[in-house]
Sequence to fold (263 residues):
Amino acid sequence: MIKRFERNDDVIFQGDVLDVLASEIPNASVDLIFADPPYNLGKNFNGRHDRWESEQAYLDWSFQWLELCLAKLSSTGSLYVMTSTQNMPHFDLYLRDKLHILSRIIWFYDSSGVQAKHRFGSMYEPILYGVKNKKSYTFNANDILVEAKTGAQRKLIDHRKSIPTVYNSQKVPGNVWEFPRVRYRMAEYENHPTQKPIALLERIIQASSRPGDTVLDLFSGTFTTSYVAQQQKRHSIGIEIEEAYVHIGLRRLQIQTQEQDSS
Ligand SMILES: C[S@@+](CC[C@H](N)C(=O)[O-])C[C@H]1O[C@@H](n2cnc3c(N)ncnc32)[C@H](O)[C@@H]1O
Fold:
């Protein structure tokens, strides 16, 4: 069964991602998709165990929703997808024939939750970024500029230019993004094991969508994507199977709970 909650530009679907995508989201209707699925690492999502019987079973399931994603993206749409470091090569090989991969992003954070003592601890998660049409897609470079450290900070002069000029003080971020993970006691913290930071979604939404565009998150969790989309005046659609997490979304998006049964 699918439940639908809505207010102004924001929609939340409570249900299984494959059912919601197939029955509720029109093809070619979404400008930006963010997908942060369970990673098949055994996390506990409110009692739902994140573990498939085999890696192949996990990949078969993932390829089903990835295929649906591609159908839902508009002809100028963009997709950002996350998974574990060990599964990302499979996602990459699967997707590179079906859309244009523009960046392989590393989200780097300062320390792992549990400090490894007998190997190098895990301090990053990969994000694959691709677009449907490499000749026509949204990339708002000026909205995501960061401080350029090399050259500019040392006030170096670039003598290769016809008129020597100081180095640029701002630049488009590279593909290694450093944002702290969301921790207990941070203002944005919600009770969820894999909440993504607001700053991470701000960069993605500001880079790859415009005000009025539709942003879809397949596995919303704490609804960080929808929350940022709302702040940035985009339309948001969030899908989540767990009722407890849907309640977080309803609160963060300030949607009243007069649900409509979609099925
Ligand atoms: C990695 S978390 C997403 C975290 C989210 N990006 C955030 O910032 O909070 C994955 C989420 O997918 C949900 N989920 C798992 N299986 C699902 C399914 N079949 N359909 C929809 N949601 C599902 C889990 O309950 C979990 O909240």
Observations:
- The chain has two domains: 3-138+175-257, 141-172.
